[in-house]
Amino acid sequence: MFDSFLAGLGLVLTFPTFFYLLAGIAVGLWLGVVPGLGGVTGMVVLLPLTFGMDPAAGLAMLLGLFAVVSTSDTITSVMLGIPGTIASQATVIDGNAMAKRGLAQTAFGAAFASSAFGGVLGGLAMAASLPFALWIILAFGSPEFFLLSLLGLLMVGAVSGNAISKGLGAAALGLMLSQMGYPVASSMPRYFFDQRVLLDGLPLVPVILGLFGLPEMMDLAARRSAIAHISDTRAEDDGILNGIRQAIRNRWLVVRCSLMGVYVGMLPAIGSSVVDWLAYGHATQGAKDRSQFGKGDVRGVIAPEAANNAVLGGSLIPTLAFGIPGSGAMAVLLGALTIHGFSPGRNMLGENLDTTFSMVWTIIIANIIGAAALMIWGRQVARAAFVDGNFIVPAVILFIFMGSWVWEPGMFTWITLLGVGLLGYVLKAAGWPRPPFILGFVLGPVLESALSITWQSYTPMEVISRPTVIGLVLVLGVVFAFALRSTRRGLAEHSIENTVETKASLLLSSGLAVLLAMVFAGAVWMALDWKLLAKLSPISFGVAGLVIMGFVLLQDRVRLGRIAAARAAGDQSAGGTLAGFVADHGRQMTLLAAVTLMVALTPWIGTYAAILGFAGLYAALWGRFRWWIVALYTAAIGLVLYGLYDRVLHTPFELPFFM
Amino acid sequence: MKPGMTKTPGALAASALTAMLALTAPAGAQVLDLDGKTVTLVHNASPGGATGLSAQVLADAWAQTMAGNPTMVVQSVAGGALTKGIDHVMEARPDGLTLGYLAWQGTTRILDPEILQIPFEEFGTIAGIGGSNFLVHARTDLGGGLEGRDEFASLESVKVGGYSPKMTQGMQTLAALDLLGVDWSYVSGMFGDGPLYAALQRGEIEAYPATTAQYMNELEAGPIADGTSMAVWQMGPILEDGTMKKDPALEGIPTVGEYIEAATGAAPEGPMWDVVMYHAEASAPVNWIVVAPPGTPEEHLAMLRESFDAAVADAAYLEQATKVYGSPPNIVNAEEMSGIIADVQNTPEEIKDAMRGLIDRMER
């Protein structure tokens, strides 16, 4: 095996393989920065080019690209508060808070160092796990997946901060919305309201970009300032090296989260979409002082970044050993393997072991080179935190809307993005943490699928007699006990959304809870006549949601009572005023209205005119830039639309009505 | 989705011109000029994966044979349980710049509610492409241990796995088990050969319909050679002589009809056998349909069909496609494909009822 390990290194270092690896890294670093594109898009674009290549070169280019995307996506998460890819959602919370405090370079240094370590450890762990990888995959059947999904859902507590009931409510909403479309065990679609576009449920990318991206851009536009709130160019001790030192100081957190990444990565469908939340939850639960989480705690950056880079090593194992691609990227890689005559299974662990190890080396080398490049580049990128936000907003709006469109072209994608963006903003304004929504949305189908298969395949006795089930139930019990203890003692003093609690925000929260209670009740009522496996999950989620909404309403009522008591005691400023609340959010709503108009006009005036019109008008009317700057800026936006989305990605655009 | 999504400003102008010309020239009388243009081959699955990969292989070959030698790009329009991509091509302008490579699932789609029905006959049909045969792959430790495939028919019950209750090969397998008198339960939710094989090894399922590609790459020299599993029967399309096609790669494995006849002593018949044969005739030959938007000029369609035939006969294409499909692709010409579409649209109610009955039992 060791000979194959070295032979794998030889394959990667051979010319032109190494050259293609560098090319893949360069493309991957760039793709990670653009919200919505990510590694899968890059791999799909490059895949046809690999058909005529030597297999090692083609695989090195594709994997090199994908390996570094989860390193460079940190830039968008930190600077803009928008996940560059699905893998960097959790980095948004503390990474963006650090950038706002002028600590972007420190966040970068910590993130890139953790990413490099996580990636290298992920590659090595994959190599070391190969002898028993088959055992792990076969030991984890549907009952274990169900328990792991529950374990993931328990992290809702950790990513809700001090708003547990609202976090649970957001998770319940995410779970319920994940139930749209065809269920695993039924031939009839659910909650599709006679709309074909809903048959596969809501698309994930616009949901994530809408939930985090739009509200951040609304805030940035309203502030009329740079991303960083401080007036000088850098916080006192900000620097890449300081970030690296922080990562070293938290080295055991890096190691634990990297290993978490590897082993979660081995579990198809869970992987990168939730591992960063699991790691973030682990970091908050394991910390003695949690007060800075949500406000710019470097551990909130280190943990998810170590985990999301380690995932790739883990996810390769089921892909190569079983042909089970746990993600879109692995599906593309499987395609590349197929076209080059490799077949997943025992061949990849036997006669083609050197090729398998060449992938391990590709991951290791790409992570090191990628992180080093970004450390050098990071200083320049961090300066963007001090650029006028009005330059940033239209460009980012372009990327998040077109990034969603690339995944599922069509107006429904933009409507989803807008709708979820509004939801995200309302959640934020009402003090409901958004991360639990994503956890629920991603884990809902995994949970339901595992439950359905378990229900169909096993008897109750078969389930409870499985040693892995017993072990996981114990883990689940321990984690639940910790979460309960933490909640009861009020240990989670940190806030995820940092929303100022006012009478208006509490009324908004209560209104939201009433609305969602109606949604949950309606969803349960609709499901009553469905077949057992089609209705089991939605009814469970709906009933849980109804109960949680009751708690939210109760909690809001108590808090409103406190404000009323403070006012009765003479403090007339307690709880703020409605006029103040409207003033705080009015500008954000204006931007949302402008974006809504852009979307509404697109079917009539076409994609080009809608986006260019928005960018130009924003720069002229909101940014109040000089006319030639507006012209140059709009032209640059047009160039990106044409060059990247049209010529390179071949995205089908909406045409104007007269064409 | 708005009709006629397309590409660049240049292409927009070209589209407008084409549309104007279409108004002044008699429809169906010209081969559209594709010289210097970009033709988008739309598929309806997620990026990557077998559909995207096979579309790319086809596009590479077809661009060489299509009149005007246009650039061909592959575009995924996924979503809506495959309908989004189908609708995209259905509503595209018939300007030659958009073609479809669509996973169609016609034989089970006809069971969907009216709102989900798709008028496939309105497309300009170019061809159909099918992959390899399927085989039923089963564990050998069932019922106290199976010595040979004959003993599979004497099992009391078997737990069969599949993607969803509407998987055609799953339906065929269960219908055949009914004919053999073997009780069954169905476990859905395992998407693809890999997850199904892993579930078989874990014991979550006891048998499943596997592709020939998996048989050749993994099963034959692995668990089947080890004796831990076996290939029971194969299922493929129906040949002109009325018999089921046998895949050369599955030599020695009987067809489902041969197996049932050998086990029961009589040729299979009845509603369940009709379901098996219905899918063999209408579904097995074709996994993907290759189409042009409705209204595409007849001469242009003729050019597309000819150039397609030339492309799929190319040795380089066949080599690449065989890697993707696991065996040489089954090409169905436009006339045959139109016949299949018509047959599916006119599926007898008895067959539909039999399929609904099976699905009802699969969903329990």
UniProtKB/TrEMBL annotation, chain A:
Q: Where are the transmembrane segments?
A: 6-23, 30-51, 57-82, 103-126, 132-156, 168-185, 197-214, 359-378, 385-405, 411-430, 437-458, 464-484, 505-526, 532-554, 591-619, 625-645
**InterPro entries in the record, alphabetically?**
DUF112_TM
Which terms are listed as keywords in the entry? Membrane, Transmembrane, Transmembrane helix
Q: Is-annotated flag, keyword Cell wall biogenesis/degradation?
A: no
Q: Which Pfam families match?
A: TctA (PF01970)
Which segments constitute the DUF112 domain?
19-439
**The keyword Plastid is assigned to this record:** no
Tell me which PANTHER family the record gives: TRICARBOXYLIC TRANSPORT PROTEIN
- Protein name as catalogued: Tripartite tricarboxylate transporter TctA family protein
Automatic annotation (TrEMBL), chain B:
Does Signal show up as a keyword for this record? yes
Origin superkingdom: Bacteria
Swiss-Prot/TrEMBL keywords: Signal
Tell me which positions the record assigns to the signal sequence. 1-29
Looking up PANTHER family in the UniProt record yields: BLR1237 PROTEIN, TRICARBOXYLATE-BINDING PROTEIN
- Family note: Belongs to the UPF0065 (bug) family.
Q: What is this protein called?
A: Tripartite tricarboxylate transporter family receptor
> Which source organism does the UniProt entry give?
Pseudooceanicola marinus
Q: What is the lineage of its organism?
A: Bacteria, Pseudomonadati, Pseudomonadota, Alphaproteobacteria, Rhodobacterales
